[in-house]
User: What shape does this take?
Amino acid sequence: MATSLQYAIPGSFAQTFTAAGTLTAGQLVKMHSVAGQVVACSADTDPFVGVVQSDGAIATEPVSIVTAGPAYILCGGAIPASGNGIGTPDSAGAAVAWTSGGARKQCVKVTGYTGSLTTASGDLVIGNVLAGLVGV
Assistant: This one.
């Protein structure tokens, strides 16, 4: 059952939604066409609402979504510190490096990475949900 908050970080603001499909801890999610349900983001243009913070969920299960503040974020590739640690959704709902030339408007910020240190695909890292940032 997906009601556990084993990935919750103090200071984050989470809301409970219903999963519209299989979700994994740290995935970036968007609203589904059915009210109150969320699904993994599938493009950098998706207006994500937050990050899965429960231990995952399957369709019709409740799932905790951090909509603001610190969260564990699933990485889909390298998010270099040199790019200010800014990430945006990929086709599987994981965070990838934001680029200024893309349509990426919603993002998360990976924290604690400095210098040349970067993330790798599959990493579950601490970051902040920063929905609505443009041109960072």
Observations:
- The radius of gyration is 14 Å.
